[in-house]
Each structure stands twice: as C-alpha cells, then as structure tokens.
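Progress note, sequence design subtask.
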C-alpha cells in the first residue's frame, strides 16, 4: 500500500464536506489515496451531486430498500469489494452496518467530539455540539477511530482538540471542530497507508 495509492470507499449520509476535504487533499498530492467509490445511505444527500461533479462513482444503498440489516450490510460489503477498496472511511455516515470479517480493521469513522464523551446513537452533527455546550465543557474536538459494529466505539487513532469559547453557538463550535477534522482524518489515513497503525482483532 505504501507504493500504491490507497483505494478509499467514502461513506456519506449528508453534504459530503468531509468527502470534499479528502478529494481536495488527494488532488493537491497531500494524501496518497484515491476515492474508488462513494457510498450514500439515502437518495437525497447533497454529497451525491458533489461526488458526481468530481466524477466519482456513487452507489446508493439504503437500509429501507435493503430490508434487513444483514442484507444492507452485505450490499455495502459487496460494493467495497467490487471497487477493491482498501479502507472504508465513514464521513458523516449515519447508518449502522455490520462490518464483515475481511473489512475488520479497514473501516474508520470520524466523530465531532472527544470520544468516549458525547458519542452513541443519535449523537451526530449539531446534536453533539449542543450537548457539549449544554454540559459546560471547556474543550471539544474530533476523534478518528477504527469502527466496529456499535456507534462511536472502536480503537481511537487520532484526536484533535479545540477550546469551547464563552460565546460559542453550535454553529461556531462546529466550524472550529470541522477545521480540525480536515486535518485529523487525512492524518489517520496517512498512518494506515504507511502501515503504522492497525486494529488488533
């Protein structure tokens, strides 16, 4: 992998801003990777059109149309294999799926808080930043971790911190955290590509 670009499968549920950041880093030669496929969890996320404008292949796999969790997960796994994905990166991906044995340790997630705080089902996007502010935290940040089959658990790879300011709103805190996400995720992918991190089974 060190000699060839890492083939990424980028998984999205919303606007695709993390996907755009990764695509930008790749275009600038700052990330030794290529986006092999974009997997969207619904037909309506804005990231689909953004991916298509970048000429990236998009596959839409919804839980509702798949029926069971088993079938949903199987479709995702088949798509990753078809596109020869080395590493699946969940980029604001909100649907829980079961990671097959051949992708254990090859799926990452990024979360807009300092896990294990403010993680779990329903804790995504502004819900996270609202909870951080409501708790009176003095710092927040982002976490990149290897994904497992529960929400926001799995071994932590990278965390980057930001201060929570007295006049912060969920929007201002989100913007400050996202700046760090744009650094943390490429860093984690770099480490994976170089073989300096792996998830113990």
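Output:
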């Amino acid at each position: 992998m060190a000699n060839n670009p890492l083939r990424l499968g980028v998984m999205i549920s919303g606007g695709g801003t993390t996907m755009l950041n990764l695509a930008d880093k790749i275009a600038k030669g700052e990330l030794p990777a290529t986006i092999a496929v974009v997997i969207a969890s619904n037909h309506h996320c804005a990231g689909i059109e953004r991916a298509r404008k970048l000429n990236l292949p998009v596959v839409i796999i919804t839980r509702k149309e798949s029926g069971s969790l088993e079938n949903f997960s199987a479709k995702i796994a088949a798509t990753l294999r078809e596109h020869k994905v080395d590493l699946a990166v969940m980029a604001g991906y909100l649907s829980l799926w079961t990671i097959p044995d051949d992708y254990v340790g090859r799926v990452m997630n990024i979360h807009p808080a300092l896990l294990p705080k403010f993680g779990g089902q329903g804790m995504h996007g502004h819900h996270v930043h609202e909870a951080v502010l409501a708790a009176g935290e003095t710092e927040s940040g982002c976490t990149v971790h290897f994904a497992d089959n529960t929400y926001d658990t799995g071994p932590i790879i990278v965390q980057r911190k930001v201060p929570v300011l007295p006049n912060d709103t969920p929007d201002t805190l989100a913007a400050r955290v996202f700046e760090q996400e744009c650094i943390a995720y490429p860093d984690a992918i770099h480490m994976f590509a170089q073989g300096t991190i792996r998830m113990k089974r």
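The helical segments are 17-27, 47-53, 63-66, 69-82, 126-134, 170-194. Work on this subtask will continue into the next period as scheduled.
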